[in-house]
Every structure is written in C-alpha cells, then in structure tokens.
Design goal:
CATH class of chain B: Mainly Beta
Oligomer: heterodimer
CATH architecture of chain B: Sandwich
CATH superfamily of chain A: Immunoglobulins
CATH superfamily of chain B: Immunoglobulins
Order of helices and strands of chain A: EEEEEEEEEEEE
Shape of chain B: globular
Helix content of chain B: under 10%
Chain lengths: ~110, ~110
Amino acid sequence: AQSVAQPEDQVNVAEGNPLTVKCTYSVSGNPYLFWYVQYPNRGLQFLLKYITGDNLVKGSYGFEAEFNKSQTSFHLKKPSALVSDSALYFCAVRESGNTGKLIFGQGTTLQVKP
Amino acid sequence: DAGVTQSPTHLIKTRGQQVTLRCSPKSGHDTVSWYQQALGQGPQFIFQYYEEEERQRGNFPDRFSGHQFPNYSSELNVNALLLGDSALYLCASSLGRTNTGELFFGEGSRLTVL
C-alpha cells in the first residue's frame, strides 16, 4: 500500500535562510507525488507535483522539490524563507488506480521567524 | 473562474444528529472527492463521485454517504453523529475519469459535534 511519511512535526527557520521540509514515500510502481500548503482555518493549496521527468520540480511561491528515487524522498525546498511561508505543509502520494485518490502525510508545521 | 466552494463554513451539531455538507466543484471539473481532516492530522479520503456514482470509498462507516448531482455539485451526509466526527471536511474537485493531476480543494466545512 502506498504511504508517505513526514518525519518532522515542526520545522523552524529564520527569514532569509533556506528551508527544507522532508517527505519519504512508499509506493509500488512509479510515484506521483504532491505538496500542498494549508494556512490556518483554510483549505489546501497545491504547490507542486512530480509525475515524471526532471528530479527538481519547481512550483508556486518560489518552492521547489527534489525527487530522489534511491532514497524514496521528495523534500520540499525554498532558497530563502519568508515569514509568510509559515503554514502547515502536506506531502501526498497518488494511489495507484485511476481515481486520483491522494494519501497524505501527517503534515509539517513550518515556522519562519523574522 | 470560480474555485471549489463549500457550505456551510462552520456548524455545530449534537451527538446523534445528522448533517449535510455541500460542495460545488471548480468550473469545468466533473469529479468530486471528500476528505476528513481531524485536528492535527492529514486529510483522509472518504469517497469520490464521478458521473453521479460513487467510484471509490475510503475506510469510513456507512453513516457517511454522498451524492453527486447532474451539475457535478455534491453533498456529504453524516448520520448518527459521534464526537469523533468533529473535523474539517474538505471537498476537492478534478477533471476526468483518469486523473493524474492535482486536486483543487475548497476552504472546508468545520463540523463540531457536542
């Protein structure tokens, strides 16, 4: 069965510093991987996805993610963090089959301090 | 371009009552999925509707039921509410029978069961 794990409940980073939010996955076959962000009392907003192709995926708001097949990881990165990036981040994997069902990790809270 | 809209945004019910949540998908989308997000957790898949039929169901009891209308909008019904049903209920829309892209989420309906 497909699954994702986000090993960190919270990541703290200073504004202007690079940030990384970690995600590892377990799938049978080729993974379809996603990152979503959730601001307080809001729904989920799509950031980026990996389907195939380049291992470095660029997404919204300056975020990017690096797909690493050998380490089964899909870490979210940003070169320079903003205070406004503070939010809850979810990694997700698309379940095999044709419905597009997403399986989400537990989430990682990113706190960017001025 | 209207995104995914959900109603109501907040509601409070008591144990044993029934609730209906509503969702209008993003313009042009024909598939609606429902997720439950308990406090501090990642979203969990409830079910998906396409062509007015339930295509896939997650690990939720029969108290959870749904419907999709000809205009692609959808309802989620929960009967015999339990305290544990308190959560943010998210609707997500997508296009087509075989979806390889991202899901678009609404802001959610926050249900509190007392």
